[in-house]
UniProtKB/TrEMBL annotation, chains A, B:
Pfam families per the UniProt record, alphabetical: FUR
Family as reported in the entry's similarity comment: Belongs to the Fur family.
InterPro entries the record matches: FUR, Fur_C, WH-like_DNA-bd_sf, WH_DNA-bd_sf
SUPFAM superfamilies: Winged helix' DNA-binding domain
Any GO MF annotation of the entry: DNA-binding transcription factor activity
Protein name (Swiss-Prot/TrEMBL): Unannotated protein
Key words, A-Z: DNA-binding, Repressor, Transcription, Transcription regulation, Zinc
Length: 138, 138
DNA sequence: GCTGAAGATGCGACCTTTTCGCAATTAGTT
DNA sequence: AACTAATTGCGAAAAGGTCGCATCTTCAGC
């Protein structure tokens, strides 16, 4: 299985918990630590929340997962390879929509040109009001 | 003093705590609830943290202050009239820079046109790496 | 200026989320 | 098989924020 190499190659030990945390993040798309723990418990009921937190941190350090702030307070974790879209969070209904990163390309470039700021647009959600929640005007 | 009218006009009672919270937010530019409390305590030592939280919420409901997520976890509060800039948060050094809202105008417009999403760019910080923390290349 | 009712405050308890220390266990090396 | 260092589980506890309740204050009406 390639996944073993993937973790070993990053200099990480291969523990059942660690593999399960990584595959839970991948399976869930995006998830809070609590949700990851719940998913992992389906096959490994005894896993401790601390272990989930520590593994998410470890996996983030080697670049296999990343976290994003969607607003409420807690971070949500993504597999690194999935982080190819912006998150459009609706402040009214709470829904999280996606938009391609390219939608922000000009914005990112102008911040780089004008302020020397290298933007990671996926780290924070884009906050606003989704089309379904905007009152229709006449 | 005009400030009294300002609060009364919004239908709020005028309490020393409320006035102090509002002027603390204005004086600080942006601040966490904890920082607001600390500021208020300079002239009103007994103020309770709950009161600060409740007043920030109340003031936000009537539109005098707004909160922004700068990343770490806690929200930071701004006077509404000051919220005319983006926040560029550096993930390396933690600094918070400003950029005019206009820098995002095209981005906001394209999200509106393509996704019907009405963006509030000030609500979340823009995350990335500031010019001082980008390694110089040859 | 008093008075009463609605609203605000202070206080403490409590909840959620995340971190930490430590002893026991386990992975990977030799 | 044995050793060492990383990892886990567990409980305690740090942050950050909310809530109920008794007391006190604001402000409208008199």
């Amino acid at each position: 299985m390639a996944e073993q190499h993937e973790l070993r190659d990053k200099g990480l030990r291969l523990t059942p918990q660690r593999e399960l945390v990584l595959s839970a993040v991948r399976a869930l798309g995006h998830a809070t630590p609590e949700e990851v723990a719940e998913k992992v418990r389906q096959s490994h009921p005894g896993i401790n929340l601390s272990t989930v937190y520590r593994n998410l941190e470890t996996l983030e350090n080697v670049g296999l997962v990343q976290h994003t702030h969607l607003g409420h307070g807690g971070a949500t974790y993504h597999a690194a390879e999935e982080l190819t879209h912006l998150h459009l969070v609706c402040g009214v209904c709470g829904s999280v929509g996606d938009a391609p990163i390219e939608a922000a390309a000009n914005f990112v470039n102008s911040l780089a040109d004008d302020y020397g700021f290298k933007t990671d647009v996926t780290h924070f959600a884009i906050y606003g009001t989704c089309s379904a929640c905007i009152p229709v005007e006449d």
